[in-house]
Design goal:
single chain; alpha/beta; TIM Barrel; 3 domains; 12 strands; 51% helix
Length: 501
């Protein structure tokens, strides 16, 4: 049976682990100044949702909540690691994670991401950490740390010169007890080294350069042009949503091509490598998180990005993904996407174009059947209108369509129409045909791979029948693009096709 000393070491390990977690969560929010609690507050669905929504509705209140979160986490984390004021700190920490839990309690809503890590029922990480902190508070009287050492020193000073024997709790420490009391110091040192290894040494100047869309940045020098990026504080609202089947999807979907390195850069052959180098794991996580703060709850991507999305979920992210199931074996890619937690799947546009041209409608039928058998909405994509038309004539009715849509009034389309710079060859015919279909339509390539300004491309797509738009965005473009979409969607849309989502 474990003895009392082993129990003490186990409780110490729990306290150090929670302190480490708190400290990291606070410091990483300082490191990336674009973090804001607003998205979390506005998405609250728990019993205190009204209160949290009220907090999130005011930029001043959000700023106060942000600072309380950041410095509260840092202060509580340091105190837990070092063993200072353990009982009070543990109770305050329990209160904090209790508020996190009440903001979004994992009750009985369906899991939209499938059986992936991060789906919870009543018990989640916040609740477990809350219970650990309550245990730490209850056992604080026997919790080693600098606080206990300080108490012993003060007591010893008071007893100095007194002939009677020292009380038991003031008697000299054993070597093992001294190590336990000082354990927080090497743990704190290890934390610093681990933090620097993960995030690196960054000067003030470098921090300003890398913050891009998440902080107010103006870059200017004799050799650089001036760039100004929108921050999360410039966000004008939350994106509206629609539904495909039972899946709730933001009207603007984050496209995955830029993140995966599939850059349509025409004759600039270095661009795909450039965007892949830019999108490190941390940068992808920042992009996903910023998208979530802006109300984008879905990314549309290739199965090759499933693993990094799953990793993002393991780190607390929530963004869901629609898979294009692209690859040599479309049925295999569908199953892989389902297994990795896709919320919807579709036959990728280029693959569907080829299958239709070859007359292999049976593969599309099997793909739709496999997706639906697993309880997900099933879609068909197409770059060519003939692909969509042929599927309709064949009697294939997906749960949603993926079809390119953009006008062709941009210079490279006019001057060099024979090259790979037009993704919707006949937009007028596309608009007319899609108007007849009563399934939700996700329009993609709405900016013609960067040739059309978002303000123009977004309006064109929504006015001409798109229910959702899929847009590739760098992190520093997200806030501005969401604001432009909000401006279009909240204004007067001249739209003939009904909303089918």
């Amino acid at each position: 049976m474990p003895n009392a000393q082993q129990y003490r070491w186990a409780l110490l390990a729990l306290r150090l682990a929670v302190g480490w977690h708190f400290l990291y969560e606070g410091l990483v929010k300082v490191l990336y100044p674009g973090w804001s609690s607003q998205g979390y507050l506005m998405e609250s669905s728990g019993p205190l949702a009204g209160f949290f929504h009220w907090l999130g509705a005011s930029s001043t209140r959000v700023l106060i909540v942000d600072q309380l979160n950041i410095w509260g986490l840092i202060g509580l984390g340091l105190a837990l690691v070092l063993g200072l004021w353990v009982r009070v700190v543990a109770l305050l920490g329990a209160l904090l994670v209790g508020l996190y839990y009440l903001a979004m309690p994992p009750l009985f809503a369906p899991a939209v991401a499938g059986p992936a890590e991060g789906n919870y029922l009543i018990v989640n990480k916040n609740l477990i950490e809350l219970l650990v902190l309550v245990l730490v508070a209850i056992t604080a009287h026997d919790s080693p740390g600098l606080g206990r050492l300080l108490e012993r020193w003060k007591g010893s000073v008071r007893q100095a010169g007194v002939s009677q024997a020292l009380p038991v709790h003031l008697q000299p420490l054993s070597r093992r007890d001294l190590v336990a009391h000082l354990a927080g110091l090497p743990v704190l040192g290890g934390f610093v080294l681990a933090f620097l290894k993960k995030h690196g040494w960054r000067s003030v100047e470098e921090a300003q350069l890398v913050s891009r869309a998440t902080s107010d940045v103006t870059i200017a020098s004799p050799t650089l042009k001036v760039f100004e990026f929108k921050t999360i504080r410039d966000l004008k609202g939350r994106l509206p949503v629609g539904k495909i089947g039972n899946v709730t999807i933001s009207r603007v979907i984050l496209g995955g091509n830029l993140i995966g390195g599939w850059a349509h850069a025409r004759d600039l052959i270095y661009v795909s490598k450039l965007v892949k180098a830019y999108h490190t794991r941390d940068k992808v996580f920042e992009t996903f998180y910023l998208a979530e703060l802006c109300g984008i709850n879905t990314i549309l991507t290739n199965p090759l990005l499933c693993d990094i999305i799953n990793d993002y979920w393991r780190n607390g992210g929530k963004i869901q993904f629609i898979s294009d199931c692209g690859g040599r074996n479309v049925l295999e890619m569908i199953q892989r996407s389902i297994d990795r937690g896709a919320c919807a799947c579709y036959i990728q546009g280029g693959i569907a174009d080829d299958l239709v041209r070859q007359g292999r409608f049976d593969v599309i039928e099997k793909g739709l059947e496999l997706i639906r058998r697993n309880g997900l909405p099933a879609g068909i994509g197409g770059h060519k209108l003939q692909t969509i038309r042929a599927c309709v004539e064949r009697g294939l009715w997906p749960d949603f369509w993926m079809k390119t849509l953009h006008h062709t009034n941009y210079w490279s389309a006019r001057l060099e129409p024979e090259h790979d710079n037009i993704w919707c060859e006949d937009p007028e015919a596309t608009i007319a045909f899609m108007k007849q279909l009563q399934q939700p339509w996700i329009a993609f390539k709405v900016l013609a791979a960067g040739a059309i300004h978002p303000k123009e491309g977004f309006r064109y797509a929504f006015e001409n029948g798109a229910d959702f738009i899929c847009v590739g965005m760098y992190d520093f473009q997200i806030v501005e693009d969401v604001n432009l979409a909000l401006e279009v969607l909240s204004g007067k849309l001249v739209r003939e096709r009904p909303w089918y989502a």
